[in-house]
Amino acid sequence: MRFFPLRIHLKTFTTGDLVRASGIYSVTHAAHRLLPEAALFRGEVFPKCARCCEAVTFQAIREFPGFDLGENITLRIPLYELPVLENETEISSVA
Fold first, then answer.
1. How far is CA 59 from CA 5, 15, 73, in A?
2. Any idea where the domains of the chain sit in the sequence?
3. What span, in angstroms and rounded, lies between the C-alpha atoms of 74 and 76?
């Protein structure tokens, strides 16, 4: 599969913003340790931290061109909250 850089790769997004392009986004959150990246779909809302109300920051890494054109949308599972990682073992078990 070939990945293309997002046209919006320089823009930073926060919790509650609308996802304008499906792809992989880097995740930054000062209050807690979260997964470093998240796959998000166009039309969804950037998710919040599962533990607090502090905003999470996102930056586009890779776009999935044409992904939203698929007919079988039942494969899409929206991400509403980002789980907080307590230690290093959680990162390796999720990855």
1. 12, 12, 24
2. 1-68
3. 5
| 74 Ramachandran zone, left/alpha/beta (phi>0; psi -120 to 50) | alpha
Residue entry with tokens 């996102």: 58
Given a cut of 50, whether residue 44 has pLDDT beyond it is: yes
Where b means 16+ CB within 10 Å and e means fewer, 14-29 reads ebeeebebbbebebeb
Long-range CB pairs of 73-78 (<8 Å, 24+ gap) are: 76/41, 78/41, 78/44
Indicate if the pLDDT at residue 26 is higher than 90: yes
Give the sign of the dihedral formed by CA 5, CA 7, CA 12, CA 14: negative
Percentage of residues of the chain with pLDDT beyond 70 = 67
Taking 80 as the threshold, does the pLDDT of residue 48 lie above it?
A: yes
Sheet with 23-28: strands ordered across: 12-14, 57-63, 23-28, 37-40
